User: Fold Cell division control protein, putative from Candida dubliniensis.
Amino acid sequence: MEQELIQIINLLTSNELPTVITGLEQTHQLLMSLLPSIKQYQNLLMNTNNNSASLMYNQRHIKQNRDLQQLIQFQISQDNFQYNLIQYLLPIYDKYKLSLNDYLLSNQIIQGILLIHPNSKRIFNINQHNMKIILDLLDGCNNKDTTNDNIKLSISLISTLIHVLLKNYDNYRIFENLNGCSILIKHFKLSSFENINDQTNTNTNTNSSNNEDEELNNNLNFKIIEFLMLYLSEEIDNTNPNGGGKSIQEKSQFFINDFPEIDSLIENLNQLNNL
Assistant:
């Protein structure tokens, strides 16, 4: 596993963009090769009883299963800063302007690594610039001439932020300090929902391009709502003695200047949660 990671890292840190893209593709292939073992590992955990016989069986099964060994080796390697892939992926955003597909691939890779190795989230609070890289890119997608590519990239970046913040309140605080709430909510377009009603109430036919635009805008809105449902929740399990938890009301204040309707939106989100 170490040799494979070293090869990938050498590609990702190349000064030639085509070589970097090859590194992204190989990283994606590595994660895909781990997918069957992830499913096996989850099944083992689900079927584990808290007794010594069950635990011993699982330990033997892992030792005898090459795929599971690969997964565990990967997880262990990501604890080592030298081999942690996310710290090599993020500088690519700073160094190069990628194509949409390459941005989407890189975001997908980061999301996958964070699912396999949640401790990699600490990279975003150890060095705040790593969080800023994602937020700057998201901020750059929000302009008057927003294209479909920018919307697709925004959706992917917000998905990445969900993975970065999930169950990591240190990252919540970094996100807030870097004006992340303002950057994110500026992408929320109430007009998209209004257009749905307008189209429903009229008999005029719209061309496929307009339909695609509306669908993308709606998908972006729904992704933002997904983020808000995560972020705007009570931090009842936040035991961080340094930062402490923030209430929903405190967090809503980060949005109010850019989105005065935030309290109404929170009320609607609470109704959804109670369904």
Q: What stands out?
A: The mean pLDDT is 85. The two ends are 46 Å apart (CA to CA).
